[in-house]
Specification:
CATH architecture: Beta Barrel
Largest sheet: 22 strands, antiparallel, barrel
Strand content: over 45%
Radius of gyration: 27 Å
Structural class: mainly beta
CATH class: Mainly Beta
Number of domains: 1
Helix content: under 10%
CATH superfamily: TonB-dependent receptor, beta-barrel domain
Length: 653
């Protein structure tokens, strides 16, 4: 298949980037004119139950720019269906999502979607815009990602902006078409005694489902095009709609706090918060001609599947920040409040008529449409922070659901951060502990559809975690270990139905991240070691490795940065997951061990100042050389070789 359109686009962008370099690199004085992004823009996220502004970085670095797939920028090892936008699940236990255990049908797609937890707010002195675009593959297998961010201050205290992310991909294999969109409108406002953060998220996922290859061995014939390989499902689509409306407000009822005359200590003023969050989810799974060879059960209709699931959560939180204490060597703050959730959910199937013949010409007719329920939850929330000199910082948080469906669910966590050394050998020691019990999702306890139906009464799941890490930021070193003990763990068994393992078992994770520089050669390394106390209910690879090896050089008096090198991904073999598209769930399989296969990418990347970045990349260059073993999910192969191009352009005016 011709790659001429791709090469033409690469040539045009190279020419365009050269023009940019000439136009903006006429002199060193001109190149250095204008403030850098750190000087004209501030960015933050909301933490501590959306009551604290925590600094967020602006991504303008060249290093790792070529790792553009959200799956692998989040985790170095994942169970992944192969095409950007399709379902994924991290193979690193500590990287798995625990944001909202209710939305099990959304979990495989969270990396691609927007959420208030991930939202970044801005304060800019100039309008700020950022465009990102990647493309790769021939027209009938093309993968395109597009992103845009724009934000600006309307007044010094009032900011508006929007963010958009799109994946439009045909996929290398049959029935892998992806259409993903995530749109966010956001704003923040600050007055003397009042602040506001607000956003609207609109997320949509439209994915075809292949069910995997009919014959994994067919992948061995490199003469066959990937689109010639038969798959298990045809014309099957998963549609997800997930929307958020979020508002966080704070009000300071008194104008000032209390300060002593010698400025030795101060008591900060009381602050009140109100957080409103509306979230809904609607998922539809359609198979126009379901095959008995793929599905074990047909509960409603053997000729067509049209399952629908809906979920809505309206939450309100009232939180008070008590007067904080500040001295020259000590500070303390405490926040606490109450949270209410109103939840409604349902699972429906197409209006269908089941006619049962009773004999003698008599019939019994049943109409099936929708089942579901609603409930409420009330919780207490507390978060606190204390600092002792510049050396020790202590943080903690807790929440307890005291009524409603989630009654008895709780989480308590604490972290200590110790600054050991200063200067180039600055060292940080972090210790953390967490204890939580979680009420199972309503959809894990009760659910019905055309192919799956269950009624469970699962107990609360528990997790006790303790760990620590040591880091030297200036020397680009981090090492850590954590142990989690899981109790009443819920998983999807070999029939893709939820099950609960009643005994406790440990999960240990250790990691090391170290960057090395040798002249102009750079080595970025990450390694995770994991042990699962029960691989039959929680399979994990023992070792996962990522290494990026590249040569780096600066041109044009340092204005142009260039890198060329290789990215390598590897994990040891284990019984990785299978995937059931009807419920969008990864489940246990013991049919085949997957892994023990390296993925090799080659890249060349460029950056001009902090304005323009570009990469050329060959993914999975070793496909076909080490046998057809490139599966991370049962029957779902990773892509063969694919050449990609990506650009990112930032505007500060």
């Amino acid at each position: 298949m011709s790659r001429l359109p791709f090469l033409k686009l690469a040539a045009v962008l190279l020419l365009l980037s050269t023009t940019v370099l000439k136009a903006s690199g006429q002199s060193e004085e001109e190149a250095n004119e204008g403030p850098e992004p750190e000087q004209i823009i501030n960015a933050w996220k909301l933490g501590d139950f959306y009551t604290t502004e925590k600094p967020a970085g602006i991504d303008t670095f060249l290093t790792s720019f070529q790792v553009h797939n959200p799956v692998f920028s989040h985790s170095i090892s994942a169970s992944f269906l192969g095409n950007a936008g399709l379902a994924s699940k991290s193979n690193i236990f500590k990287k798995r999502f625990t944001r909202n255990n209710d939305l099990i049908f959304l979990d495989p797609f969270k990396l691609y979607l927007h959420h208030p937890d991930k939202a970044v707010f801005y304060d800019t002195r100039r309008p700020f815009s950022k465009l990102d675009f990647t493309t790769g593959g021939p027209s009938d297998e093309n993968e395109k990602n597009f992103g845009v961010l724009h934000t600006q201050n309307v007044t010094p205290d009032f900011n508006l902006g929007f963010r958009y992310f799109n994946i439009n991909s045909e996929g290398q294999y049959r029935e892998q078409e992806v259409r993903t969109n995530a749109i966010t409108l956001f704003s923040n406002y600050f007055a003397d005694r009042y602040s506001l953060h607000a956003l609207l998220n609109l997320n949509s996922v439209n994915n075809n489902e292949s069910g995997g290859l009919e014959d994994d061995g067919s992948l061995a014939d490199m003469q066959l095009s990937t689109t010639d390989l038969p798959v298990r499902l045809n014309n099957v689509i998963n549609i997800v709609r997930n929307n958020h409306f979020f508002v966080s407000q704070s009000f300071t009822p008194f104008e000032t706090g209390i300060e002593d005359e010698d400025d030795i200590f101060s008591i900060e003023q009381i602050k009140l918060f109100h957080i409103f969050h509306y979230e809904n989810l609607r998922r539809t799974y359609e198979d126009p001609a379901p095959s008995p060879g793929f599905y074990e059960n047909f509960f409603i209709n053997s000729s067509r599947t049209l399952d629908s699931t809906a979920y809505r959560n309206i939450s309100n939180s009232l939180i008070a920040e008590l007067p904080g204490i500040q001295t020259r060597s000590f500070s303390f703050s405490l926040k606490g409040g109450i949270k209410n959730e109103m939840v409604k959910y349902s699972y429906s199937m197409p209006q269908d008529t089941i006619v049962t013949y009773l004999g003698e010409g008599e019939t019994d007719t049943t109409f099936i449409s929708r089942a579901g329920s609603s409930h409420h939850n009330n919780a207490l929330v507390v978060t606190g922070k204390s600092s002792i000199s510049d050396r020790l910082e202590l943080t903690g948080s807790a929440n307890l659901y005291f009524s409603g469906y989630k009654q008895g669910e709780y989480s308590i966590s604490a972290t200590a951060l110790l600054n050991l050394l200063e200067g180039r050998n600055r060292s940080l020691l972090k210790l953390f502990i967490e204890q939580k019990e979680t009420k199972p999702s309503v959809f894990l306890n009760s659910y019905s559809s055309n192919h799956f139906m269950w009624e469970n009464d699962f107990r609360h799941s528990g997790q006790s975690t303790v760990g620590g890490s040591f880091s030297m930021p200036e020397r680009e070193l981090e090492a850590g270990v954590q142990m989690a003990v899981l109790n009443n763990h819920i998983y999807m068994d070999r029939s893709a139905n939820p099950a609960q393992y009643s005994s406790a078992f440990p999960v240990v994770t250790a990691w090391l991240k170290k960057d090395l520089n040798l002249w102009r050669f750079n080595f970025r390394n990450k390694i995770y070691y994991q042990t699962s106390g029960n691989q039959s209910v929680l399979p994990l690879p023992a070792i996962s490795i990522y290494s990026s090896i590249f040569y780096e050089h600066f041109f044009l008096d340092g204005m142009l940065q260039a890198q060329a090198g290789f990215d390598i991904y590897y994990n040891t073999p284990f019984y990785a997951y299978a995937y059931q598209p009807a419920t969008a769930q990864f489940y246990i399989q013991e049919e085949k061990m997957l892994g023990n296969y390296p993925y090799l990418d080659f890249f060349i990347s460029f950056q001009h100042k902090n304005r323009f970045r570009m990469f050329l990349k060959g993914e999975h260059l070793n496909a076909g050389f080490l046998g057809p073993q490139y599966f991370t999910v049962l029957h779902h192969p990773m892509n063969r070789q694919m050449f990609k191009l990506g650009v990112s352009w930032t505007f500060y005016d």
